[in-house]
Amino acid sequence: MTGQLALFAEEQSSPAGLQYITDFIAPELERELIGRVSALPLQPFQFGAFEGKRRVASFGFRYDYALQRLQPAEPIPGWLTPLVEKVETHGGRSTRIGQVLCTEYDVGVGIGWHRDKPHFDRIFGLSLGASCKFRFRRPAGEKWQRYTLEAAPRSLYMMAGESRRVWEHSIPAVEAKRYSITFRTMADRKT
User: Any idea where the Fe2OG dioxygenase domain is (predicted)?
Assistant: First the structure.
């Protein structure tokens, strides 16, 4: 029995480098941000020849799956500046956000298992409108070690270290319309 409890406890431990803050923003700001994001010219997420059901708008940079590299995108809009500054303050002195992704998840839409591209370093995600199950997994021998974070509206998560580089993450189909704003720092690309 002790081995089973230890295994269960291990599967429930949070990935190293994952941070989570509830109520990162006020409800009034959440409503304003949902209005701003929903008014963007959101487009279906493109990855190569495939089209995802979530709709997105990228700022600063976007990853082009056909070319397999970063491409310049529209500059980060001024209405996001105070939020970018708040995320950077939370991230610490060396945090500089270089890319922002605004996403709309309609009812029944999720995102499959993945890791963000290596061009990005730390990832911060602001959840808006509805909660979601933010799932993590990593190989553990013949099985997967798993962890699920209930990402509440107005919460902010940060992935760094192992949670960013070793663990994959996904969001199952959401039960209510959800928006997110993802803030990414850029990886140090030594030549």
Answer: 96-187
* H or E stretch at 61: strand 61-64
- Kindly report, residue by residue over 133-189, the tens digit of the pLDDT: 999 999 999 999 999 999 999 999 999 999 999 999 999 999 999 999 999 999 986
In words, the CATH class of domain 13-186 is mainly beta
Per-domain boundaries in the chain: 13-186
For residues 174 and 157, is the Cβ–Cβ distance under 8 A? no
- String of DSSP letters for 117-161: -TTEEEEEEEEESS-EEEEEEEEETTEEEEEEEEE-TT-EEEE-H
Task: Return d(Cα 39, Cα 33) in angstroms, integer.
Answer: 10
